Amino acid sequence: MRRIAIINQKGGCGKTTTAINLAGVFAARSLRTLLVDLDPQSHCAAGLAIPEQRIDLDIGDAMLHPAPERIDPARLLWRINRNLDLAPSRMKLAGIESARGGLSELPDRHARLNRVLSTLLSNYDVCCIDCPPSIGLLTFNALTAASEILIPVETSYFSLQGAAKQVATIRSLAKRLGAGAATYWLVPTIHDPSDALAKDLLEELRRRFGPRVAPVVIRFDAALREAASFGQPVIEYNASSRGCEDYTALAEWLMSRITPQHDRIAREPAWAPTVTITDLPRVEQAMGRKLADASVPTIAGSDLHAPARTPTVPDPDPPARQRVTKLAGDRRALAVASRLARTRDTRHATDDLYDSEDTPSAPPPPFGVTVDGHCAVFVQPISAGSRIAVAGDFNGWSPQAHLMHRDDRRGVFQLRIPLAPGRRHYRLVVDGLWTHDPHNTAVEQSPFGEQISVVEVAENRPHIETNLRDLVPQPAD
Predict the structure, then answer these.
(1) N or C: which end of the chain has fewer CB within 10 A?
(2) In Å, what is the CA distance from 254 to each residue of 36, 148, 163, 263, 351?
């Protein structure tokens, strides 16, 4: 079984989109495909219309099981289509990396995923592993299990700056873990070919990393987001879209390659690419103009990213846009139908197929931030803006890593983020503007005079009332 890990510790670069759509193309090419979700945010399940509260067993449970070969695959795996299965994750996956989470105490803690996948070798041809936006035991397990590594890199200034560090980190970890056979490639993603700066950054990425950059570029395409909202890989949602064309080309390029013995991380020269652009004056000038136009606060010792800008590109598929507009009023029915399609097997035939959207509304939660166990629960009124993200020292101050979910029934934006114990700082990014949390009285002043909101996560804090726990469905015991 070929094992491809999709890794980047920077959020918002297209890891989950790449994992889902690569797996979808492999399956459409009649390859028996397994998609493994190692991200506690469970975005693979969400992007394939599988409600988290219906998951009986997740990949973390399998990794902690003393004898994974005895696990019933029917409890762990979800059939997405004829050739595609998903091993999902849940929010509690974030806890297994902690000191008392169980994984760190095992002697083979770096190889638990490899042990689970070894029990499925005869059932699949290829496995795609979606990794969390961090470097920890879950990522270590993916590196140990993988035969190949893909590093999605958005063609933006900050992503290019972090690409060299990401490559150096992966190479260092691979050597430390003895995963020398894994070959890596950088995959340009979310690329706007009409943007001069994006084209310059793509050229710089190819100049700096040479043959380690995949020849296929994933262009920005609204159809990729639309496909995720309908719970489908883009090859099922719109096979004529640019996103489907790009991921099909990437999958075919990957499957055409046979990893040679010399093409290995462990045998490469011990070089570390520079992390500053010194030989592209036009890039620096263009980036300087963009930064001058953006009022982005800075905090000493932190790397705050500029607010995300959606590239302006021609509509790749007007008929698809018309279909989406026509069906927009019946999205709920489509979501229920998609869940029905995901639960055709007998093990879920008699289960309740409706999630919390179909149940009576719970009391509206309080605004601000509340600590629930090892998670911080962020809630903002729906009138605050059209798009709200949480950026903090726990996600590299990224305005794309943690986008708050809109709940029109309750009239709120909400998000649940697992955090390690300690004092955490964050700000809200409301429609591209950075601000402190107006509903959180715990604030600190940065050296530049901005107000920074604070949340403290204590050790072994008990869970709070049920109405707050209902913000994100809790996993079954």
Answers:
(1) C
(2) 18, 10, 20, 14, 39
Domain extent for 447: 361-469
In a domain, 12, yes or no: yes
Residues 6+ apart with CB under 8 A from 112: 63, 64, 68, 103, 106, 141
What is the tens place of the pLDDT at every residue in 237-273?
A: 999 999 999 999 999 999 887 544 334 343 333 333 3
Distance CA 459, CA 373 (A): 8
- Whole-angstrom Cα distance, residue 17 to residue 25? 12
CA–CA gap between residue 120 and residue 126 (Å, rounded)? 11
> Is the full-model pTM beyond 0.85?
no
For residue 336, being part of any structural domain is answered with no
Torsion from C-alpha of 174, 179, 182, 186, nearest 10 degrees = -10
Strands 183-189 and 148-154: parallel
Q: What CATH code is carried by the domain that includes residue 452?
A: 2.60.40.10
In-domain check, residue 242: yes
Does residue 260 lie in a domain region? Answer: yes
Length of the chain: 477
Looking at the structure, tell me whether residues 26 and 119 fall in a common domain.
yes
